[in-house]
Amino acid sequence: METTVYGKTIIAGEHAVLRGCPSLVFPVFARELKLKYQDTGAPLSVSLSGSHGQELKLLFWGVIERAFEMLNVSRDEMRGHFDIESSIRVGAGMGASAALCVGVGRWFEWKKLVSSEDLPEFCRQLENLFHGESSGLDIAVALSGRGLRYVRGGERTPITLAWKPNWFISYSGKRGVTSECIQKVKTLSEANPTYALGIDEQMKQAVLLAESALMAPESEASLDKLALALNQARSCFNEWGLAGGEMGVHLEDLIKSGAIAVKPTGSGDGGFVLSLWRSAPPESLRSSLIPL
């Protein structure tokens, strides 16, 4: 049995997606997790490889144990060896935990312990191990392997772009902790509900604006509309207090280098950043930019 799951980037909708806001998310095909399994007859074991495979060592066993607990199955009943190769950085907003949960979930589906209908919710509950409260967004795009317009608990509409923006993701230099970011937004919401709802509405408008730009024919007007949407989404992260520090420095460096829009992608406060360019980025930056 083997499966491949891709990383992801969120165009807009982060955090507010937990409260019903739509979100736009796309796979990053340049970053992937490959899981292979062989029934060796020996107790379960795992080997990890790839540029970020070793980062999954403790996470893998945590997910496996949680899955066995959810299914009321003893680990001692299972035999075999997993070989996992990953190029998805952990704690960077690229969906490493979701990719792992989907890879493991597909194994349980292959073992006929989880039905295909129950797989999305099974994987989402596994991801709660990392985030406390998973929106299911990362799981949805990991399972589908294509761009989606996602609404929690409902819509999952595939998206086909009318044109290909000149956009990239790059690492901010600092890891983010999704559960801490979620809690920070939640604390703000409890302290000032009206203010927090206003930020959610601003993020919703950014999503609708980005979607409109991406569905329209390619033009300078479409590019400008997309830039406006991304910068509006960035302002939400600023209001949440999740775009400062090393990430803030990285965002400003990209603007100074010529990007027309930048924003965190994922939970913020670290991890990857999305940048949009009118023309090709400077040669000096290209090695650090991952095209979408």
Task: Kindly describe this structure.
The chain is of the alpha+beta class. The chain has two domains: 2-158, Ribosomal Protein S5, domain 2, CATH 3.30.230; 167-291, 2-Layer Sandwich (Alpha-Beta Plaits), CATH 3.30.70.890. It has helices at residues 57-71, 96-110, 119-131, 137-144, 178-191, 193-215, 220-240, 245-256; strands at 2-12, 23-43, 45-49, 79-86, 148-150, 156-158, 167-171, 261-264, 272-276, 290-291. Strands 1, 2, 3, 4, 5 and 6 form a six-stranded mixed β-sheet that branches. The model has no long low-confidence stretch (mean pLDDT 94).
Q: State the CATH class of the largest domain.
A: Alpha Beta
Task: Tell me the fraction of residues in β-strands, as a range.
Answer: 15-25%
**What fold name stands as the CATH topology of the largest domain?**
Ribosomal Protein S5, domain 2
Mean pLDDT: 94
Helix content range? 40-55%
Tell me how many strands there are: 10
CATH architecture descriptor of the largest domain: 2-Layer Sandwich
Label the overall shape: globular
Distance between the termini: 29 Å
What is the helix/strand order?
A: EEEHEHHHEEEHHHHEEE
Indicate the structural class. alpha+beta
Radius of gyration: 19 Å
Low-confidence stretches: none
Tally of DSSP helical segments: 8
Number of domains: 2
* Biggest sheet features: 6 strands, mixed
